[in-house]
Amino acid sequence: MSEKQKPDFAENEDMKNSHSMDVYKDVLTGDLSWLRDNDYILRGYRTPLTFWESIKSLFHSHNETMNVWTHLIGTILFFFLLYLTYAIPVDHFTTAESVTSKVVGVDAMVKGEIQSLKSGGDGAVPRWPITVFTLCAIRCLLGSTVFHNFLSTTRKTRAILQTLDYYGICILISGSYVPVIYYSFYDYPEYLRFHLAMVILINVVNVSVLATPTFRQPKYRALRATLFTIVACYAFFFFPRLYLLEGFSNPLFSVIFWYMMGMGGTYIFGAVLYGSRFPEKYSPGLYDYAFSSHQLFHVCIVIAALFHYVGSVQIFIYRVNHPCLSL
Q1: Nearest Cα to 44, choosing from 287, 291, 308, 293?
Q2: Which segments of the chain does DSSP mark as H helices, in order?
Q3: Whole-prediction pTM value?
């Protein structure tokens, strides 16, 4: 390997002021060691970049490129899904004739939703639980995009953005439960409120742990993945309650069970990859630019969120056609 390919940044004080997007891990020592993250990713690191250089790095190949673009595309996709959530009229889901209904203005649908909330629902099934989840997904994906694109600016900026990135994951997990719990316990408001409160409480505890600088270190990667997985498995605590209340006739089991299993399985699969650093752990250097564990984890997050969105819409449609008037 030539000196041009692998310059000794650590021995050259000017390196702290140079800017590159294809640096080897071994030369990021001393004051630059904070730029390292994964011992099995050998190159493709960026030296400290300015804000505008970080923007330009969107269109360069480095070991964060796939991380940035998977969640940037995911963010755009969920903005579009947010539009669709209110662009399709309710009668589209209730009668065969309405399949030809024209798409109405989003502003009109939002105003109607707000009015429905103010009037106590009047029997109308609200869409705001789906909106909450979609906004939480956007917050998570956008926060991740910003973190991975700007993590090489300064050490302090990296720490702040990393914490916000972890918060985004907790927000996504919390938001994911909102439509599932709301529509599943639609006729049982006391259980609905209890389980929503529990999800919020558990995620507040999780955020408190992840906000600690110690747990942001790379060596606690597996612990972070475990915490996210535990919180994501809270559903297993309210599954039995739903079964005792309605048996398998509850829409969680009869309508969206396999969507939820697909979502959960994809999240867990991604978390296992992330925590174990597979596949780069077994072929260091081969996955420096694409398909490393973190990048595959990003893909899994987007796929799992799509599973969840489709499932949330399906259970909403069920409630439109099988309304309960207790709320």
Answers
A1: 287
A2: 51-56, 65-87, 106-118, 128-150, 155-184, 189-210, 221-232, 235-246, 251-254, 257-276, 293-321
A3: 0.84
Our count of domains for the chain comes to 1
- Long-range contacts, stretch 149-157, CB < 8 angstroms, 24+ apart: 149/54, 149/55, 149/57, 149/58, 149/64, 149/68, 150/51, 150/54, 151/64, 152/35, 152/45, 152/46, 152/47, 152/48, 152/49, 152/54, 152/64, 153/48, 153/49, 153/50, 153/51, 153/54, 154/48, 155/34
Fill in the amino acid letter for 179.
P
Q: Is residue 26 part of a domain?
A: no
Q: How confident is the model at residue 277 (pLDDT cuts 50, 70, 90)?
A: very high
To the question of whether residue 298 is assigned a binding role by annotation, the answer is: yes
Residue where the block lists tokens 């408190």: 208
* Assigned domain for 262 exists: yes
**Segment 84-101, tens digit of pLDDT:** 998 887 777 764 333 333
**Is 148 flagged in the annotation as binding?**
yes
**Domain around 166:** 51-321
Question: Closest Cα to residue 175, out of 202, 201, 209, 137?
Answer: 137
Please choose, from the candidates 190, 122, 193, 187, the residue with its C-alpha nearest in 3D space to the C-alpha of residue 324.
187
308 is in an annotated binding site: no
Cβ atoms of 90 and 73 within 8 Å: the answer is no
